[in-house]
Amino acid sequence: MKVAFWPGCVSKGACPELYVSTQAIAEPLGLELHELYQAPCCGAGVLSEQNPELSDSLNGLTLAMAEAEGADLMTICSTCQGVLSNHSYHLARDKTRLDKVNATIADQGFIYKGTTKVKHLLWMLFEDIGIDRVAAKIKRKLTGLKIAPFYGCYILRPIESLGLRERPERKNYLERLIALLGAEPVEYKGATKCCGFPMLTFNRDKALAMGGNHIMEAKEKGADLLVTPCPLCHLNLDAQQPDASRVLKKDIDVPIFHLPQLLGLAFGYEPEQLRLNHHVVSTKGALEKVELKV
Amino acid sequence: MEFTIEVGRYNPEGIYSDAAVPGKPFPAPWDRSPVRRYQTYKVDLPEHAVVLDALIAIREYQDQSLAVRCACRSAICGSCGIWINGHANLACKSKLQEFTKDGTTRVESPPSMPIIRDLVCDMNPFWEKHLAVKPWLQNKQPVPPPNEEYRVPNASMEELVQEVSCISCGVCLMDCESFAVNQEFLGPQALAQAYRYANDPRDAQSKERLGEYSKSGGVWDCTHCYECVTQCPKGVEPLEQILKLRRMAVDAGFTNNPGTRHADAFAESVRDSGRLNELTLLPKSIGYFNVVDQLKTLPGAFNLIRAGKLPPLVHKKIPGLSRIKAIFQRVGGRFK
Known about the structure:
The structure holds two protein chains of two kinds.
Chain A lengths: L1 E5 L9 H14 L2 E4 L10 H5 L1 H18 L3 E3 L2 H16 L1 H11 L12 E3 H9 L1 H6 L9 E4 L23 H8 L3 E2 L18 H17 L4 E4 L2 H9 L1 H8 L7 E3 H8 L17 H5 L6
Parallel strand pairs in A: 1-2, 1-3, 3-4, 5-6, 5-7, 7-8
Helix pairs in contact in A: 1-12, 3-4, 3-5, 9-11
Chain B lengths: L1 E8 L19 H4 L4 E8 L6 H11 L19 E4 L2 E4 L14 E4 L6 E3 L2 E2 L2 H9 L21 H5 L2 H4 L6 H4 L2 H5 L5 H12 L7 H8 L13 H5 L6 H14 L6 H16 L4 H9 L4 H6 L1 H10 L13 H11 L5
Helix pairs in contact in B: 3-8, 8-9, 8-11, 9-11, 12-13, 12-16
């Protein structure tokens, strides 16, 4: 299946393991990735809060590029998903806004008709690829692992633009996927809460406490690892985890996996192929439970 | 139709907050709440019944000791804000059928607020924040003698209809994720009201307000999680009002803060390369002259290097960057 692929800035920057593992699982899932190399950063909500028209235009351009590809736009980041969903939702309903965007991007050779559907990989697994196909590709059951889902705010809220009103089941895809891969999903309150990343630069200790608290709650419920569809959550939960331990004065030490890394493991890839050896928090303990080494 | 309700009861034997325990910073809300016991009741109610109907039925016919706070039963008074299945909602507006999960509905006092009894929490933290934003019109000083009543154009009040709809139920604050780790944060309700007064043409203190709201505990302490937008029973969308306040504060010249520097660094990076430059975003947001805070980020950077995760030192530009630059030129405003 052909998709217009928007990898987001972070998978090309501080989380290359996300990009590599997405490329790895595309083939078994039958995804033909047409990467939008010329699309700009979504602005992560920062640009839209400061200058809504600029954000409309930049994201309108990305949506127009996907429309020109004639395929759905696939994201691998909850934040990109939230921002692009928001813009596609409003541009499809507000003709004045759409006209403004087109007045800006027409000079750049693009016109957006307002038809692009934006879908996170997580949604595509259930709604487009089909969960039977995912199940058929499993070569290595992750039995014995207790996995805590961590969604990231922007794939859950606000519910209108993300289509959660029509498809409330999107709130439980991670739990269903974890069970499908043979592992046990951990139920805890933090799963749908904020990792704290948006506050990291303004209010560092509070942001670290926020993420750290959620990981600790999952750990107390027995989680061996957390899995997230959002690389920004990954940055706060993995890269900043040693600092969160310091703030909370608790030893956290729980590895954080990207969604495609978890799928990749189940599809039989080796941990190095998914760059599971390039995390700040070692993935060793969790991998040993499924008899793998890094 | 029979419904099962699990009610969080006040347990006087329970341990209160360990927030006061020294050496235990930033306890999560569930660490902070008193130990509660859950008591299960069964009630027979029509299909369309709401959670509050069940609570009243329990109190009237089964257990007079249950403490419930409510008044209008019509989502107007804002008294019955409570935690239902782990999220704050108005009990009078939440249909039992929709909130029945695995055959039961769990109702309890929100762990983010101090508890008085059973389902009655102490709203003082909420009212303190509400008052802190000065939710009243402030006239020019000395007050000029009025020639006639203060007239306001219709259009400028229409702008504020959303914020005026607030019923002060506190649901947004109960679920606010920033408030859960930062008691100083003014919170969504107070800041939505702050926007309402800062934007009223009759208010003479708009600029002073924006200065106050830009300080620590103000608009930049919001974590942007959209919980308040999702939970507000009146469609106030407090987060959207906080974002508007941020814009207004920057326009009014309150730019010497990490929030504004972060937004500026972000926009510059997208304008100049099409992508986010993670390597410069953090130091630019902190401010190059803030050596103490800069040093705090060093261990994090070393961790990234050790894991082989540091972003490429030479930040690549996207192909077709001229398009992005042209868009900035046209609609970039202060980011041109």
